[in-house]
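[[Per-residue structure]]
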Amino acid sequence: MKTMLWVVRGVAALALVSFGALATAADLVEGKDYRRLDKPQPTETGKKIEVIEFFSFSCPHCRDMEPILSAWVKNMPADAQLRRIPAQFSPQWVGTAKVWYTLEGLGEEKLVPGVFAAIHNQNLRLDQDKPFFDWMATQGVDRKKVEDMYNSFAVNGKVARAKTLVQTYGVQSVPTFVVDGKYTTDTGQARRHEDVPALLDKLIDKARAEHK
């Protein structure tokens, strides 16, 4: 047992070294670490620096990114705020986009890890309405409230707008992140999911400096 603990701690230490190496880099390299949008987009987070994650519950890479992103959000800079926008690259992804906005509308974002697990580990078709309603009921959420939110004008409107935003930002893969409406990066540029938090921190620093 002690040997296993030492190995786990050693891996964690290596991960921290990787974070630090990226976080203390003198400069980000445009075209390598991030891209600048040709047309900066308006943000929706007021005075806070907006960080958008374009994602999908149907995407295995987004599933892998989820625990890393959740850990980062707990300690993200106080002047930044995360927004999540579901991409819809297939009909199945439209269903899971509705799942996200239903969770958000009901204030049940804590169920995000469970949704990923249900889809990718249990092979549940939560992109379809009835399996999703059934699953939500098993999580202790009133089924009627779920159905009403899922089928609401508000959720359908957000799904339609999300599709437009994916096109506006030129998103071609997920997870993709946009900072301050003008810097975009993806896990390919970060090279590893574990490197994304440090890269986002640097882009937030860059945005903050430009605001000043």
Summary: The longest helix spans residues 2-23. The chain is about 55% helix and 10% strand.
